[in-house]
Structure prediction request, 159 residues.
Amino acid sequence: MDGQKYIQHVSAFKRADQLIMTTNVKTKEGLWYLQQPVVALDIRTGLAAIGDALLDTLSRTQTGLPSPPSQAELDETMEQIFKAAGVQTYDHFLEGTLHLSIGRKVEGIELAPTHNGGTDGEGFHFLSEGGMLLEGELSPEQLGDAVLQGFAACTTIYG
Prediction:
């Protein structure tokens, strides 16, 4: 994953049948940070709903921020993610959660799966395999399907 080439970026998390997405913002220095809004939906609502939510969340990306979000803003974003996931702490969030990085580049939308190494493995790490670049105009259904395929490439230490 080369986050420097992203025009827009979303972090997506999957817990059982729940999908949680949050936009990311990029500072002038090129660092990405999680940012609200946090969107949660049941994946059983259908592929089009997933694709539409992804497109909406991607559209909220901001770049070129003069400074990173404040610690209070970052904490509030994490609290919203935990609330959507129904957990209280990061450790509980890691249990049973998959993470997929989704970035729009000039060439298309890149899906980058991660490995959940748990609390002892320092959380999510990008995998060298299983990523995909979606080129051209895709329907919301096609995007939703690709997101679920991206999550299928994610791995975890948790059962």
Summary: Residues 3-156 form a domain with the NMB0488-like fold fold (CATH 3.40.1590.10). Residues 58 and 107 are 15 Å apart (CA to CA). The mean pLDDT is 94. The chain has one domain: 3-156.
